[in-house]
Amino acid sequence: NAGVMQNPRHLVRRRGQEARLRCSPVKGHSHVYWYRQLPEEGLKFMVYLQKENIIDESGMPKERFSAEFPKEGPSILRIQQVVRGDSAAYFCASSPPGLATLDTQYFGPGTRLTVL
Amino acid sequence: ILNVEQSPQSLHVQEGDSTNFTCSFPSSNFYALHWYRWETAKSPEALFVMTLNGDEKKKGRISATLNTKEGYSYLYIKGSQPEDSATYLCAPNQAGTALIFGKGTTLSVSS
User: In chain B, whose CA is at the least distance from the CA of A40?
Assistant: First the structure.
């Protein structure tokens, strides 16, 4: 069984460009979470989505960041007009249908975004 | 904002030593606590999900206990091996779904 897939694994953007990060959850999982790890810091929750719905976006910056998990296809984290401070590792996790609070989250390998 | 503290920040032990780490979190509105292991260049890997006060979980040489009344969890590794070298993260839930990760304890086991 394939685990959580993320692509690209490494992404380089210049300031002002857009970054699109993709996450394909474990087959059958309906909950997707995005986390960010800034240099020298721990994993920080950004957003929790179910199919076609954003459930909790309390950790996501209000501007330039958006996330979606369409009915078909991967979840996308989009960062518009990137700045150097967006350079980080972005991890996606997924969990099966059910009570998300108690479910183990399965993490992908992450996308390392570098903004020049 | 949920404040999660893990100690020590890092730890170096010899092969065969037993060790333990602490995760402290606010006890109010506790829902569940997750432990993860994160090896360098890999993804975080789930170890345990714990919900009940007094809960104890075990997986091989690794075990964990939970005290929800005082807000802490211990992770124990018995007879550490070099392959146990990793960062161990705890993440409690309060009401709601977001996991709040601590900064982790980085364990290094030398042979």
Answer: B103
Instruction: Report d(CA B46, CA B54) in Å as an integer.
Output: 20
| Cβ contact A58–B98 (<8 Å) | yes
Q: According to DSSP H, which parts of B46-90 are helical?
A: none
Dihedral (C-alpha) B56, B58, B61, B65: value to the nearest 10 degrees? -20
**How many other CB atoms are found less than 10 A from the CB of residue B31?**
15
Tens of pLDDT, residues B83-93: 999 999 999 98
- The CA distance from A90 to A19, in Å, is 11
pLDDT digits (tens, 9 = 90+) for A46-96: 999 998 899 999 999 999 999 999 999 999 999 999 999 999 999 999 998
* Residue A84, φ and ψ in degrees, nearest 5: -60, -35
Verify whether the Cβ–Cβ distance B43 to A91 is below 8 Å.
yes
Encoding tokens for residue A111? 């996308």
**A59/A36 Cα distance (integer angstroms):** 10
Residues A1 and A19 sit within 8 Å (Cβ to Cβ): no
Strand, helix or coil at A15? coil
Interface A-B: count of C-beta contacts within 8 A: 55
Cβ atoms of residues B33 and B91 within 8 Å: yes
Nearest-CA distance from B108 to chain A in Å?
18
- The chain B residues in contact with chain A (CB within 8 A) are 31-32, 34, 36, 42-46, 49, 51, 89, 93, 96-104
